[in-house]
Amino acid sequence: MVPEWENKGRPGFFGRKRDERIRWLNEHFGPGNWRLVWTDGRQEFEFMEACRAFYEEAYFRHLAQRPEDVDFICSFGECIDNAPTNVSCGLDYAKQEAFSTHIQDIAVRNVLKRLGRTFSGPPDRILVIRTKDDNGWRFGPGNIPYHEPDLIIAPSLHPWWARPGSVEDFWQSNKILQVMRKDPE
Question: What is d(CA 35, CA 22) in angstroms, rounded to the nearest whole number?
Fold first, then answer.
């Protein structure tokens, strides 16, 4: 029997509290009895599909129109978000080894592959796609526009550091908590 899922709300940004929130969800609903999905208003996507369909696609559409930005990114040896270990994740969104979920570095790697490009800079020259103090701030998910801004569910749940209409705005605003529907006894 295929489980039926019931929407329980929009949980918003987890950030550094990701593991704490997941623990709470497991304690409250039971492991395997809840999930996060992302919607574009037409269908729902689980994490891996959502990363490709929303995050990566936003980065692709943005960077494909900006060859000078792609050249800048390729002048580095690699990119990371929140930890040097992010490099080990390569192109795989499921590999989440750090203290918070990191998608933008993986999206950038996948976009470079789609564009037929690679990092060509020195291995120790790392593009950090994180905060205003980092060399890759402009490529952060709070700065990359979402290509279909009308699909962002209102009210916006974007974190304080993300611009309205950004891919991060979409990601947080269109994230839905679902709980497995219990059969009536």
Answer: 10
